[in-house]
Amino acid sequence: MRAGVVVVGGGVMGASIAWQLARRLDPHTDPVVLLEKKELAAGSSGKSGAILRQFYGDREVAAMARDSLRVFRSFENTTGRSIAFMHSGVLTLGSRAKPGEAERVAAIVAMMRTIGIEVELIDASRLRVLVPGIVASDDTVAAWEPDAGAVDPVLTVQAFAALAREHGAVTRIGACAEELVVERGRLRGVRTQDGVIECERAVVAAGPWTRPIFERIGVELPLRVVRPEQHFLALPGGALGAPGPTSTSRTLAALTQPREEELFARFDGDGNGLGRAPHPVLLDLEHGLYSRCDLVTRRTRVGRLDYDTDADVPDPDRVDERVSAEFQAWARATLSMRLPRYAQEPDADSFVGMYTLTPDAQAVLGPVEGRDGPIEGLFVASGFSGHGFKLAPSIGEGLAQMVLGEPVSAFDPAFFAPSRFRAAAVRRSGAFGL
After folding, report:
1. What is the CATH number assigned to the segment(s) 88-149+226-357?
2. How distant, in Å, are the alpha carbons of 82, 105, 282, 295, 432 from that of 266?
3. What residues contact residue 118 under an 8 Å CB cut-off, 6+ apart?
4. What is the pLDDT of residue 422?
5. Which end of the chain is least crowded, N or C, by CB within 10 Å?
6. Worst-scoring range by mean pLDDT, 268-272, 289-293, 328-332?
7. Sign of the Cα pseudo-torsion (125, 126, 132, 137, in order)
8. Which CA distances in Å does 114 have to 57, 66, 94, 120?
């Protein structure tokens, strides 16, 4: 078999890249082949919170999140495919009691506004009206993104892959990329259990499996994998509105104090008739927590913002799936400090995900270099450090541009270049690239 481009990895990045490549290539002369060894969204993507925030300290990343959110928000109308977009808004909370935190939130909000992101810096009194029942001291400040929200991760990956197929791409589920075939500094193909797919261009977007794939050809990338624990609580009882027609109206149309029965039911979740989100997505810098409602499964996800304490994963095919009782207790107690009503809600499962990290918490995107120099035709898209889902449309477009030799407009190639780690020591981050 021969392909124009092979994309390795059937997560959100691989599916997005395959979609954008397929839009640009002739399926008869340059077919795009997407390889996935298990099933679509079987790895990190399927367990992602799929939160669509734009709050980033780096202008380059914030701009990508802005552009990607525009794709996600219009996706269902433009493609007719459901991704269960939930228009709940996103709140990033900080505290003046922590040195420099409130100032940093304010500075990031100011930067976001300069690049056209709709975001507002609000104080504790406004926050209490926006989210009735929230516990916020007078020291609390927040960045409010009213147009942001979340999507269903599995539906989104499946939709991206379906669009790739509509444009002529081939998705080979159950096909494992066993080896990259490189001869004299050029990519010649990708070996699977069924033989070699001949190609001169390939993108490896295999998440936790990316580093092992490259190690087989002697390429070292600064990637490591950790296992963040996730816990779920049931959505607050009675919080959901009855399923019905979705609404895309602005969630802050009225800020009058609600009646008691309206608490936690002010946010219209544009989730395909699934009802209303009880509250916005929360990124709580003060408590080190993030949470987001899932209208599909009727539960709320809780995780840590900081992954410095997460255990390393030596082999992504043999992950310890156990979630500690200590983490489960922390998740309930910490979310309940901010939203006390969760203290009475039942547990609703736990699981372990995987993040592929780089030293500076930013992805590696671009051409790959071996010991003897660049390997022509070989590209990588990995190391998203827990915040890649929200960037997938921008990365799909930018990698397609890069692979095809077009000017890259979707992101700054130098900012994400894999070669950057060969230079001076880079700053290190352990908190979602904030």
Report:
1. 3.30.9.10
2. 23, 25, 15, 14, 28
3. 145, 146, 147
4. 80
5. N
6. 268-272
7. negative
8. 13, 12, 21, 12
Domain ranges of the chain: 5-46+154-223+358-422, 88-149+226-357
| Cβ atoms of residues 239 and 360 within 8 Å | no
Rounded Cα distance between 234 and 255, Å, is 26
Residues in the chain: 434
| This prediction's pTM | 0.91
- Token pair recorded at residue 254: 């009225």
Cα–Cα distance measured from residue 90 to residue 93, given in angstroms and rounded to the nearest whole number: 10
**What's the burial of 167, exposed, middle or buried (CB within 10 Å: 0-12/13-18/19+)?**
middle
- Three-class secondary structure of residue 345 per DSSP: coil
Q: State the chain's mean pLDDT as an integer.
A: 90
In 3D space, the residue among 2, 93, 85, 9 whose CA is nearest the CA of residue 289 turns out to be 93
Distance of CA 217 to the CA centre of its chain: 28
Q: Could you say which DSSP state residue 182 is in?
A: E
Q: What is the pLDDT of residues 114-127, one digit of tens each?
A: 999 999 999 999 99
**Torsion angle of alpha carbons 159, 164, 169, 173, nearest 10°?**
-30
pLDDT band at residue 51, thresholds of 50, 70 and 90?
A: very high
Selection from 42, 61, 73, 168 nearest residue 108 by Cα: 61
- In which residue are the tokens 């794709």 written? 71
| Residue 415 Rama label (left phi>0; alpha psi -120 to 50; beta) | alpha
Q: Are the C-beta atoms of residues 330 and 228 closer than 8 Å to each other? A: no
DSSP 3-state helix, strand, coil percentages of the chain (rounded to 5)?
A: 30, 25, 45
Kindly give, in sequence order, each residue whose CB lies less than 8 Å from that of residue 148, ignoring residues fewer than 6 positions away: 52, 53, 54, 69, 88, 89, 90, 281
DSSP-based three-state secondary structure for 241 = coil
The pLDDT, as a whole number, for residue 253 is 31
Are 433 and 355 spatial neighbours (Cβ–Cβ below 8 Å)? Answer: no
Question: What does the alpha-carbon distance between residue 333 and residue 342 come to, in Å, rounded to a whole number?
Answer: 9
Q: What is the pLDDT of residue 433?
A: 55
What gap in Å lies between CA 164 and CA 21, rounded to an integer? 8
Average the pLDDT over 267-281 and give the result.
69
Task: Name the CATH superfamily housing domain 5-46+154-223+358-422.
Answer: FAD/NAD(P)-binding domain (3.50.50.60)
Check residue 193 and report its DSSP letter.
T
Q: Is 153 helix (H, G, I), strand (E, B) or coil?
A: helix
How far apart are alpha carbons 346 and 41 in whole angstroms?
Answer: 28
